[in-house]
Amino acid sequence: MPNETPPRHINRLLNKEGAVFHYLYKVTILLFLCLLSPPVIEYFRVIQQMTLFIFLFSITVSFVLTPWVRMLAHKMNALDTPSERKIHASPTPLLGGIAIFIACWGAILINSWPDDATKGILWGSLLIFGMGILDDMFQVSAKPKLLIQIIAAIIVVCSGMVITLFPKLSPWGMAANYIITLVWIVGLANALNFFDGMDGLAGGLAGIISLFLFVLACQRTQPVVGRLATALAGATLGFLPYNLKIKQGASIFLGDCGSAMLGFVLAALAVKGEWADNNPVVSLSAPLLIFGVLIFDLFYISIERVASKKVTNFSEWLKYTGKDHLHHRLEALLQSKLKSVLMIYLLSFTLGLGALALRYARTVEAVILIVQAVLILLIISILQIEGTKREKRK
């Protein structure tokens, strides 16, 4: 009996991916259908491996769903068209975050109904996600997006997740804690969004950050944080094969509905986690190291833009777009987009390893690791400056 060919719709969905992709796609569909089977779900519960189930569910859903989202983006004309500040050469579908959002939260909700804090992250991320879809389709201005991000962060704070740096008993101390939490969540949501300017970069960074949050959660015995981090890691890994290609450009981008949403959820997870016992310095140091690349780029471009008078106020900062982020400067230096992406992956992984070393650390050791991270980033700053000089010589 002759071998059956893939269904026509799968051929159409994967017509640029190759024969291996067709085979892998069909195998992944079978795996997904198996994971939906109640006996399989019950088996994972019995062996107490629901975290593994969540990872497998999220990665398969994301991998299977992404081509359909790409087709939807084409039909809705949600395309990122080339321009002077863009680095891709042809119109590319956006809305990739749809696959990641469904894969991530589907994996969590099929397992159990979340606690109040996780519900806060869910509803906040839904707001960010919805605004991102509108932006991918209709180009929403910066101020409405910022307003929605602040509202989403307030939802997280109201669900009980607050960074505690100042005394809780003082009204001023609690107000400062609330403000810091809002700035942390909104800032990192935008910081990851800024990195969605090169194939595989934002998704890969989100995956690396999710991985380290998962390991830290395991160290601190925090299963809820660990499972959500696992769901994010699986969803981003399932998406990456379509977004990071060695020999050709990405076939779909995350879009604002993906990158801003991922940054928001990751930042909120860092607030939800407890990273040290009664040691605020160590507790703060772990997320600072894990998110170090994002924080560094946000500070660097802000200082550089103000110092060079590219922006003179906050409104101009919100509206400003340019090719001055870390990945742009490294590309100018290394003369390769792929090398730039891999360099940033390596940098993020290096800083994340420092966070794992904090498990039994004292305050002095946490400070040393932060200083080490700052020195590493200073070296990167020197490379960035050289990259800028090379760009100007062109």
Description:
- The protein is built from 17 helices and 2 strands.
- Helix 2 packs across helix 4 (50-75), helix 6 (116-138) runs antiparallel to helix 11 and helix 8 crosses helix 13.
- The protein has 394 residues and is an all-alpha fold.
- The termini are far apart.
- It has helices at residues 8-13, 19-35, 38-46, 50-75, 97-111, 116-138, 142-158, 171-194, 201-219, 223-243, 256-272, 280-290, 292-307, 314-319, 326-334, 337-356, 363-393, and strands at residues 79-80, 92-93.
- It has 2 domains: 1-274, no CATH class; 275-394, no CATH class.
- Mean pLDDT is 86; it is low at 1-6.
- Strands 1-2 form a two-stranded antiparallel sheet.
Structural class: mainly alpha
Number of DSSP strands? Answer: 2
Our Rg estimate from Cα atoms comes to 21 Å
Counted up, domains total: 2
Strand content: under 5%
Please report the number of helical segments: 17
Helix content: over 70%
Characterize the overall form: globular
Distance between termini?
61 Å
Along the chain, the helix and strand elements come as HHHHEEHHHHHHHHHHHHH
Describe the strand arrangement of the main beta sheet, using strand numbers. 1-2
